Structures are given as structure tokens and as C-alpha cells.
Amino acid sequence: MESLITAAARALEAGNPLGALNRVALRNDAPSLALRGIAMAQLGDLAKAKTLLRSAARAFGPREAVARARCVVAEAEIALVSRDLNWPAKTLAAARATLEGHGDLANAAHAGHIEARRLLLVGRLDEAERTLAEINTTLLPPASQVGRELVIAGVAIRRLRTKDARAALGRAARAARQAGIAALAAEVESTSRVLDTPAARLITRGHERPLLLKEVEDLATSEALVVDTFHHAVRRRGILVPLGRRPVLFALARILAQAWPADVSREALITGAFQARHVDESHRARLRVEIGRLRTKLKLLADVSATRHGFALTPRKTRQVLVLARPVEEKHATVLALLSDGEPWSSSALALALGTSARTVQRALEELARSNKVQSFGHGRARRWMTPPVPGFPTGLLLPGPLLKT
Fold first, then answer.
1. What is the pLDDT of residue 404?
2. Can you tell me the distance from the alpha carbon of 357 to that of 259, in angstroms, rounded to the nearest whole number?
């Protein structure tokens, strides 16, 4: 009978869950339950997979710590796929330590990669890199190499290092071919498309065009004055003026930048920045105050000068003003960006990844659901949200992450 367990494990390693189930589907011993759970996970029945893995962990005896730890790692991976980002990281760390202590370095590395991917999803890039650095890469099987390189590529994409991302994805593609697992190859290909898909729009002098991620990266060293709608900041090379906490000032900066080199009327600025339907003297007074504040904020980068009809932006030490805009202008663009990966997300996981409150995310989801942009299934804590992937809408730039170190 042990030959059946071995054959089923090899089938799973080769990405053949049906072949594994053919060998252990009718068995209820602990190893068979674990293998069935992993097979069901590969087939997409995550709820059944989780139940089987928990049953297997209980069925393994106290002397079978390695087997129980492997079940924990498998359940952690299911939690990651299910976007259950609140799954206890300490439990995974303990399982990883157990595997390392017993010499199961391949599964210990896999546990580390799962934790690194979770950290990547919630925007904790430094911690993700530290986790990768702790992993023993000696004799990693090709499937584990793919997982590692995908995390490296994800961090590089978020840090706008496209050359490093392409190199990591190239290594991941080679490892996926060696592993011979179609699902891994598809994941690498899907991630690679982010680099060749428009990631932003560039607006200047009244015209706009799409930008690839490499072109967005090049803007970091450009001499142009950039109004960045992803990070709500105005920047030029190493100088960064964050305006995320001053939405009115950022709105004024964007309107002025999009009109540059022309000026913008006072009425247009009031309507665009204050969302006012009717302009009166109180709005004009407020505009003067806010323009003064914007002028102070941008003093190292640009001047905001009064004209006969309104105001105009005059950049310093450059003759180019650009607006870096999202590929899709949407009130809840960051929520849609996360959901566009095609995976089911809970509202709590979305809140964790976006660094905001669960209630804020719930309101956004309800509004998106009313406009048929997202859909949900399940009830209560099991409720999940998803949407079909949006063409041309990669998530890399839309997730929380560093912009410039000043």
C-alpha cells in the first residue's frame, strides 16, 4: 500500500492531481488524507482541501511532526490562494522551523516562499526580501525555484526595477519548464505580461498615451516635473512633495499640470478641486488660500503664478510637465486592481492589503457591486469578492509601496 502513497505523491509533484486521486481516493489514513487534500487544492476545491488537510494533521501521531508541518504548509498555501491574509503567520513559521529542524529543506523553503508572497501582497516589501534571504536555496527543486523567482519578480515590479523583474521571470520560466508543471508555467507567463501591458497613462500638453512599466521606471530619473496620481505626489528626480493628505492641493496641482503651459480659469479650478456646482465669492477666497498653500508646498519644484483669467504652473529647472495617471480612472481603482488578479478576496484581506479600514472597503465593494463591477459568493466571514481580470489593468503600480527614498 505504501507504493500507492509514493505514486500519488509523485503524481502531485508532477502536477497530476487526478492521477494522485486515482491511487488514494478511497483511503482514509493520514497520508492519504493529506495527499487528497493537496490534490483537491490543485483542482480548485479549496474548501474540501482545507477540510482534508486538517483531518490529516489530526490523524498524524505525535511522533509525526514533519507530516503535520507539511499539512500546515499546504493549508497556508490554500489560505494565500483564498486571500485569507489573516491566517496565523506564527503557525506557518513554527511549521517551517520544524521542517528545517528535520532536514526537509525543500518544504521549509516552500513555507518561506508562501510567507514572502503574503508579505508581498500586503505591501511589506522589505520583510518579503528578508524572508527570502533567510531561505536555504541549496538543492531547491525546480517548483520551489519558480515560487522563489516569482516573489523576487513581484518585489522588483513593485519597486519599479523592470530589468531585475525580467531576469527573475526568465529564471522562473526555465525552472517551470524543468518542473514540467503547466500551472506554474502559466503563472509565470501571466506575471510576465505585466511588464508588456500598459501600466499607466502619460498626460502632457493636452495629449495622453499609454506607458509600459519600464517607461514609468524611467520617469524616476527624468528631468520632468511629474504629478503622480498613483502616489498623490509631485516630484522631479530626487525631490518628492507628498500630497496624499492634502487632496485639494493635489487636485489643483493635477489640473494645472494637465493644462500646462496654458493657464486655468478660477472657475475651472474651483469646479475641479472643490467639486462645487455654483461658484461664489467664498469659493474664490478659498481658492486664493489653497493656491497659496500649494505655492508653498511646491516652492522647490514650481511656482503657481496668477494670470489674467486664473493661475498657471511654472516649473523650475525643467521645461516639461507630465501627469502620470492610472490606466483606468475609477473611484475605487485600488480595490479593482487587487480583484483583477482573478482570485477571491475577503473584505478583511482587501483592507489589510490596502492599509485601510474594513468598513471603507465594504462600502467600496457595495458600490462596485451595484454597478456590476464586482460580484460576491458565500455569506458572513466566508464571503468572497472577485471580478474578471480587466485588460490593461496590472496591479503592480496600484498596490501600496515605496516611491522614492528622500
1. 41
2. 35
